[in-house]
Write a structure and sequence with these properties.
The protein is α/β, with parallel strands linked by helices. It has 19 helices and nine strands. Helices cover about 55% and strands about 10% of the residues. Helix 2 runs parallel beside helix 17 and helix 4 packs parallel to helix 5.
Amino acid sequence: MFVLSRILPVWVSIFIILFDIYWLLKTVYFSLHLRAAFSETRKNMRIDWRARLSALGPEAGEVYHLVILPMYHEPYEVVRESFARLAAANYDKKKMIVVLGIEERGGEAARATGAKIREEFGGDFFRFLVTAHPAGLPGEMPGKGSNEAWAALRAKEEVLDPLGLDYDRILVSVFDVDTQVPAEYFGRLTYVFLAREDGSPRPHAERLRAIYQPVPLFTNNIHEAPALARVVAFSSTFWQMMQQARPERLTSFSSQSIPFRVLLDVGFWDKDVVSEDSRIFWQGYLRYHGDFRVEPMFFFVSMDANVAPTFWGTMKNLYRQQRRWGWGCENIPYMLEGFRRDPEIPRRKKWYWTFSVLEGFHSWATNALMIFALGWLPVFLGGREFNYSLLSYSLPHITRDIISFSMIGIASSAILSIVLLPPRPGLRWYHYPLFFLEWALMPITLIVFGAFPGFEAQTRLMIGGRARLGFWVTPKGRYARHGAQAA
């Protein structure tokens, strides 16, 4: 855009206007999907899913849930909150096997947390394990994927195989250790596994060709987060909600549930990648020659927003977290190489996913820059002849008007974020207009915590070698107010 704005300013100006119109139409399109997904999710959150399961017959009572929560050095208070919500689930605990997967690298603090959690909650479930993932195993990268794989194998050896449980009737839910599940989560998960939305039974093969994906809602500590972090947190949630309304483009992310049979077939999570949560989808997609999908649950699980003891600490961690998510681009060569080697995947599916994934990552790193930062380049670089033209005069006004119209989508997101805010003592009516107005920061977040980390992640992948990213654990904590650590 810099080069062409100098040598072809007229054509670049036309491109910018068309691109802004495209952005406006895409904003409307996404807003409609967001509204639809929100409506469906809110409806599902109000249903007693355990009662719904009774209509499916005795088969519903044959499904076991293996729940894995990997942790590194997260504080006991954060871990306990998650287990308290897990123990309060409206589901038969005799069908729940829970594993807290600590890291050996976490040291004595992690072992102490594991012991306290087992003492407090070990008797609440059918089986409860605390596993310790050894450090430095060959072929492994320190991270979530290797820990999850270790925990799942220990559960298989110590519980599933001795009891002779049917792998086809075990759902493995992997949650970040700050994830808090609603009471009806496992009822909803079991229902989606066994039945379609119209209540008809789901064929056995169809059940085992899917990852079941909830919507992450980053609100556990949202009131401790500064405005920028709140906007980024809700933006991430809204993107996942919109993707649930477009299941043909949905890939797995963060917390998810997978049939144990799938994990066996694909060899568990890859142990040497950062983005194991999205890689597992491509492992299944390639293993089953394209007959694999992510099934949207339209159901929330709540997680922590990115909060550090100081404002600048939060900004730094927020950027690192977004860069780690942007490192999901490491799955592109894995996907393309798998497509090249597998003639059984239909060609139309290969082309569809290739375009969708490449366009998605390219848009992540470039769209916000082109919309908010580079739209005026022809005016500055186009030269005297172009600057005397009507197009030069009109370009800033046209782009400003189009972007102003697109702000309607941001306003709708602001309203939904207020609806999803959890209650907090001391919250008054005059706080809500401030929550609405903070969405004016959206252009900043799209560039600084969207385009920049996405651009950096893709550049690092291109360079390779030492530029490659390792797994970065987002720090978790509870703070009385931003800037002061809680007791």
